[in-house]
Amino acid sequence: MAEVLLFDHIGKTAGSTIRHVLWRVYGREAVFTSTVVGQHQERIAALTGLLDTERPAVSVIVAHTGYGLHGRLPQRHRYRLFTLLRDPVERTLSNYYFEIQKGRLPASVSLVEWLERDVERAYNVQTAFLGGLAVAVHLDGRVLSRDCFTDDLLARAREALDAHEVVGLAERFDESLLLLGQAFGWPIRQMRYFEANRGRLRARRAGPTAEELEAVRAANRLDAALYDYARGRFEAQLRERLPDVDARLDALARANRFYALSAPGLRRQLGRRARRALHTLRS
Q1: Which domain holds residue 137?
Q2: Looking at the domain assignment, is residue 29 inside a domain?
């Protein structure tokens, strides 16, 4: 029997940055990912084979499949779950622009049109993910409709949050990262990070109108309630587990400053202008 971390990764909640931290802590070869829509069935079948041993090489799973995956994996192991949520309006806007940036959504499709027609990606996504709908879509081929989104689904999503050892918030990423480190024994020097997979298109577009914002809120009524519940749980975990959080935040900030100035891997990923800025900071 082994202990395996399972990151229930909801899209556009800072998960790519978390993945870089996981690579550093556990090594890339020990982190198994299933993050591409359309490939989940094949990937999870491969994962099941890798885990069906007493001492699997996989230590961490990062999956977009949705809560409930752990119940479909070999039960000889102990799965320790964590996840992050994000303010539903911000997450939805980020996802909309990211879909356009990646070429998966024509730029001519308005935000309101996208909300109306793409239930899987634009409608109470976090509740669907944690309430068990997403895993049925990705692994069983279920087709979503708005009728699936009920108060019972919200109740199941809240119960799922309680099954996660750590529930972080993207808006409070550093504190969330420290909670993860406290729960799973990560030293601060291995939690230093740079922001990964940040969408660029949104910064170049005009902000949403009042009508568009109202449409986003209407499409995320359940997510708003779930986020409020997650925020309460996050605050409770922070009080109980990290009474010295301010000192830890200072230590993480120092580690990140040093990392930004010294990490070769980061410099390779920066553009020419950013590299010049780092040179200025050093001089």
Answers
A1: 3-243
A2: yes
Is 266 part of any domain?
A: no
Nearest to 231 by CA among 70, 92, 131, 88: 88
pTM: 0.89
| 13-to-4, 172, 275 alpha-carbon distances in Å | 21, 11, 27
Span 102-161, pLDDT tens digits: 899 999 999 999 999 999 999 999 999 999 999 999 999 999 999 999 999 999 999 999
From residue 158, alpha-carbon distances to 36, 75, 149, 163 in Å are 26, 23, 14, 9
Strands 60-63 and 166-169: unpaired
Residue pLDDT, tens place only, 42-79: 999 999 999 999 899 999 999 999 999 999 999 999 99
101 lies in a domain?
Answer: yes
E strands, 64-159, where? Answer: 78-85
**259 within domain boundaries:** no
What's 202's domain CATH number? 3.40.50.300
